[in-house]
Amino acid sequence: MSTEFCSLTVSHGLGAGGRKTTPQVGTGTGGRFDAAPAAFVAGGGDLVSTNPWRSPLARHSGPPFLRRVTLKEGIASSGFPFLISALQSLDITLASAVTFLVGENGSGKSTLLEGLASAIGFGAQGGSRDHAPAHPDETDTTLGASLRLEWHRKTADGFFFRAETLYSFASLLQSLGSDFGAYGGRNLRHQSHGESFLAIFQHRFRQGIFLLDEPEAALSPTRQLAFLRILKDLVRTREAQFIIATHSPILITFPGSTVLSMDAALAAVPYQSTDQYRITRDFLSAPERYHRQLFTDDD
Asked: For position 75, which CATH number holds?
């Protein structure tokens, strides 16, 4: 049985006696594998690694750039966004190269990313430092001006990816006469939503700190698996760090990552204990049980 995503194929075979063999990853065609060129065996189509999702990442798990985020002393933490409980006494130690922010709608995930983007110097509506507006909206900078960032190595390189503003961002690039060379050479507006997402992940992300707000929004499950592979190859260079707000139960399984719950107080949690993982697992194992509760008439 095989599942193909982009140019990537994950194959699960049955060995002698029906025993399941170790997954193998390849292009399925013997061709070029753009998402992970360093891992592709030339002329083959499979990876040598017996389990590409198991962590050689563990030895590279620490963050290369940003290590801690706190509120500056003396900040008058009243009004928005400090009404959000997770932001009232903010103190985050980033222990991994990949950190996921999870929580219910309204828990402050996107607000925190916007604040980080502003503090680093990225455009609060998305993009890199090159796309930061000359006169940002005050609501975009309130939290950013209140944050204290502590670095292992300070960097100005990176990107703030916002699913909700991607079309506007692509339109901005087009209006500026971009040839989209940094995004794979094809106009982002001439691709499907999911294709444009992956084009950015594959071609624009290289070195720096990357803030991603719901990158799964336009990705099918198989494309989310492709994104996991892109993450793996970027993280092992030790030149890329990711902070990702997500509702995806697939993405938060990334080996060696940290999952921070923003429901109530900020806390690191196992991905298996998150609502997005547990509810998805339980629903798919018995959807009729949920349907009975959801669709039963009150009378």
From this structure: 3.40.50
Percent pLDDT > 90 in the chain is 46
| 48/137 same-domain check | no
d(CA 57, CA 287): 35
The count of other CB atoms within 10 Å of the CB of residue 295 is 7
Radius of gyration, CA atoms only, the chain: 20
Reported in sequence order, the residue ranges of the chain that DSSP labels E, i.e. its strands, are: 2-5, 8-11, 24-26, 66-71, 91-93, 98-102, 147-151, 158-162, 208-213, 240-245, 258-261, 267-268
Nearest CA to 25 out of 56, 2, 55, 58 is that of 2
> Rounded CA gap, 172 and 189, in Å?
11
Q: Are residues 272 and 164 in the same domain?
A: yes
Enclosing domain of residue 143: 58-283
- Please tell me the distance from the alpha carbon of residue 131 to that of residue 248, in angstroms, as a whole number: 28
Based on the domain organization, do 180 and 138 belong to the same domain?
yes
Note the pLDDT tens digit of each residue in 116-174.
999 999 987 787 777 655 445 555 568 999 999 999 999 989 999 887 766 677 777 77
Prediction pTM value: 0.75
3-state DSSP assignment of residue 196: helix
Tokens encoding 8: 């990537």
Instruction: Judge whether 121 and 131 are in contact, CB under 8 Å.
Output: no
The stretches of the chain forming alpha helices (DSSP H) are 109-120, 138-141, 166-175, 193-199, 221-235, 275-285, 287-295
CA 205/CA 231 separation, integer angstroms: 10
Q: What is the distance of C-alpha 239 from the center of its chain?
A: 16
Question: Is 295 within a domain?
Answer: no
Domain tally for the chain? 2
